[in-house]
Amino acid sequence: MRVFGAGVDLELLDHGVAERALRKHALDGDFQSAARVLVLHFAERRFVDAAGIARVAVVRLLRVLFSGKLELVRVDHDDKVTRVDMGREFGLVLATKAQSDFAGKTAEHLVTGIDHEPVALNLKRLGREGFHYYSLLIDGVAVSDPGSETFYGMGRMASGIEVPFKGGEYYALKDVPHGDIRMKRYYSEVSRSWRRFFVYTPAGYDTHTAEKYPVLYLLHGGGEDERGWATQGKTDLIMDNLIAEGKAKPMLIVMLDGNMASAGFNAGALKAFEAELMQAVIPFVEDNYRVRKEADSRALAGLSMGGIQTLYAGLYHTDLFAHLGVFSSGWLPFYQKIADGQYEFINKNKAAIDSQLRLLWIAMGGKEDIAYQNCQNMLKEFDTLKLKYTYSEYPGGHTWPVWRNNLYNFAQLLFNK
After folding, report:
1. How buried is residue 207: exposed, middle or buried, by Cβ count under 10 Å (0-12/13-18/19+)?
2. Is 394 helix (H, G, I), strand (E, B) or coil?
3. What are phi and psi of 287, to 5 degrees?
4. Nearest CA among 136, 187, 126, 191 for reference residue 159
5. How many helices (H) and strands (E) does the chain have?
6. Which of 100, 122, 356, 411 could lock onto 318 through a cystine, CB 3.0 to 4.6 A?
7. Is residue 235 within 8 Å of 404, Cβ to Cβ?
8. pLDDT tens string 169-225
């Protein structure tokens, strides 16, 4: 099965009822009716909880992040997306499990009951802009689309689709001076292994050899690695455009690998990352690149898991980082003991933190962001401690369109004093 985001161009796997119905329409040469049976096919493959064709202009498939299912939604002529009431809009509701033992007569009943108005099927997501991962399910196994470029996300190489939208000019390729993204390998005495990071250097870095630059250490999320911000995040284009417009200071951005051998969400993994950052990455960067070394010229930020790492390594070291950015993150319930320890540390060291920390910028992808409630709980604690922060929201959930926008806004606030 191939899926193209702009319309319908699919090759189906034979399976159960969908197989029978599709064969019938293939013999009749009726592609439109065959396309409608895709919904049944998706239900058989456990992509959706219900199947049928609504009497609406367009029916699209919407993947709800981390929910483990797909939903059918209605897209009106004004492009407004609403979830479909399966029981009301559809004459037939299938079980949530595959029912590949349906008889041929059942398939005939389904096919003849389908409305004959044209229906388009598209893969769409909340926010409906920018970069999104997607996978194909073949016999229940999620695989990459061989017709798509692949990206490391979800803990494996995955397919991705880029959805253009009106507000995407800030990461568009423009006729401005362009910097570079470079890959650098280094040996870490902390992890006793070869590791690598990607670094963005602004236009002029190789010619203005007497100039030293502030540096932002930028962290990816769980299931991703150092490639995330460099590829999915479009860091170079965002920064090239901001710097050309005078909206951000020229800076280096080090995109490091936050995955440690002691993987997982635990204190050991956080301590291992902190040691890697402080004892390996920062010294290597400062020895090999022209960067300023004072805290006011150093920033740390990250998304999701990287946001947790920023909270842990950043708030304990405001003497090293004067600017912190936390995107789509907040202390999770199973981190409560670690979080309580940090709140106690903030309370005891409030005067020093207030004098050292220039910016604590916290952003969420709206209420649909899976980290939203964790973040709100954390902010209540910060309010109790009277810890200053700036809060921002950009709708779109826990997705790359949100994090691109976060970087765009956060970068403009850095190193201005």
Report:
1. exposed
2. coil
3. -85, -25
4. 136
5. 14, 17
6. 356
7. no
8. 999 999 999 999 999 999 999 999 999 999 999 999 999 999 999 999 999 999 899
